[in-house]
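User: Design a sequence. Structure:
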């Protein structure tokens, strides 16, 4: 039996595992895509946008321009690297720094630390009703409360990255407005549509307009591989199409065992963000199979609402409670528990996280991916499985596996 070493991201480094090569069905990686020159690509997407006049023609002197930017949990979007080029382009169009401000689209995430910058920055607080203004009611009856600064701006520009998303299909774009700068009640009322119509049906299978959008496209190595700019819907849709091209990965079969990494830092800083890799691993694994998940989780307690959601005797009780008081951390916990109860999950993380993992979830914590594989192998041997298959996903939150 020939053993081969496989390397997967973990935190700011990597871990390796020796596996029997003949049992490895697929190593599922996104389409290799080279990094781009961020300044060049950003300027180009603003001056030759999709479905829109150039950014310089969308604003005029005297406009108060709001830049909505994803919060710190989306640091992988590289907004820190391209925002300055957006501000400079606005300057060239006659908008001085003092007429530009940033609102961080924190949704229900934690606040940022203060930092001095050349333009004003504001942190959205979805629970501060004094910060909100009523914008109307959606066709589904959702009362829409948005950040006052965003609502009162003359022009709003959305800055983020395109990525696949287990609830919205693709992230970025409209999500910067809702949930990004919406009120708490609006967020929870809207997100409740992620559930099916009735208790027991589980997840829903279908789960002031900005003037411009500038979004990065991120390759499997976490680098900016391109930029899209223009109409908030058309540019977003074009970016989503390119993201899907990079992330749609064919696989030969669903495997008995899937080894998946969240992708390393910053995607595995906490469980809430790291467990996005459960979606791809669930798609790549037979029901009842084994999943080895790698999430370092330096900040395991963030957000507390996620871990606090694992307190119910069964999934039905959890779903009933979720329907009564819907929050995104609660929903993600529910989604993850479905995966954890339909598979055996060996959870590779820091030793100091073991007690929390054992207490809060049915997952089995281990220190290394090699240790996890040895446990999985013993389980397979105990079950008399000699013809098992293995799928490997080094960047679990950055691919969408599908059957060839």
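Assistant: Done.
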């Amino acid at each position: 039996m020939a053993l081969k070493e496989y390397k997967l991201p973990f935190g700011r480094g990597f871990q390796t595992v020796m596996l029997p090569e003949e049992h490895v069905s697929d190593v599922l990686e996104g389409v290799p895509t080279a990094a781009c020159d961020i300044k060049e690509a950003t300027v180009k997407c603003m001056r030759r946008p999709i479905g829109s006049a150039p950014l310089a023609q969308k604003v005029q002197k005297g406009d108060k321009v709001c830049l909505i930017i994803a919060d710190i949990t989306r640091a992988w979007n590289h907004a820190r690297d391209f925002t300055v080029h957006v501000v400079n382009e606005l300057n060239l169009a006659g908008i001085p720094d003092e007429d530009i401000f940033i609102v961080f689209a924190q949704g229900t995430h934690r606040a940022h630390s203060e930092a001095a910058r050349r333009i004003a920055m504001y942190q959205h607080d979805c629970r501060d009703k004094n910060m909100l203004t009523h914008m109307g009611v959606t066709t589904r009856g959702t009362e829409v409360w948005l950040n006052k600064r965003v609502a009162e701006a003359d022009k709003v520009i959305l800055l983020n990255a395109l990525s696949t998303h287990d609830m919205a299909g693709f992230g970025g774009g409209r999500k910067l407005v809702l949930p990004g700068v919406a009120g708490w009640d609006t967020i929870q009322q809207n997100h409740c549509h992620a559930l099916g119509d009735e208790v027991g049906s589980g997840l829903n299978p279908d789960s002031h307009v900005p003037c411009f959008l500038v979004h990065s496209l991120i390759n499997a190595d976490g680098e900016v591989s391109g930029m899209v700019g223009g109409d908030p819907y058309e540019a977003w849709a074009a970016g989503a199409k390119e993201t899907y091209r990079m992330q749609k990965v064919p696989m030969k079969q669903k495997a008995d065992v899937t080894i998946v990494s969240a992708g390393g830092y910053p995607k595995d800083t906490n469980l809430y963000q790291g467990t996005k890799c459960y979606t791809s691993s669930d798609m790549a694994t037979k029901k009842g199979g084994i999943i080895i998940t790698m999430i370092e989780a330096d900040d395991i307690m963030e957000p507390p609402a996620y871990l606090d959601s694992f307190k119910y005797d069964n999934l039905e009780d959890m779903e009933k409670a979720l329907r009564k008081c819907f929050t995104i951390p609660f929903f993600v916990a529910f989604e993850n528990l479905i995966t954890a109860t339909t598979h055996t999950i060996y959870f590779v993380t820091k030793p100091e996280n073991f007690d929390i993992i054992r207490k809060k979830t049915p997952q089995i914590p281990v220190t290394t991916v090699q240790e996890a594989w040895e446990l999985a192998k013993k389980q397979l041997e105990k079950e008399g499985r000699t013809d098992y298959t293995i799928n490997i996903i080094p960047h679990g939150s950055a691919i969408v596996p599908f059957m060839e």
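The chain has 13 helices and 20 strands. The longest strand covers residues 285-294.
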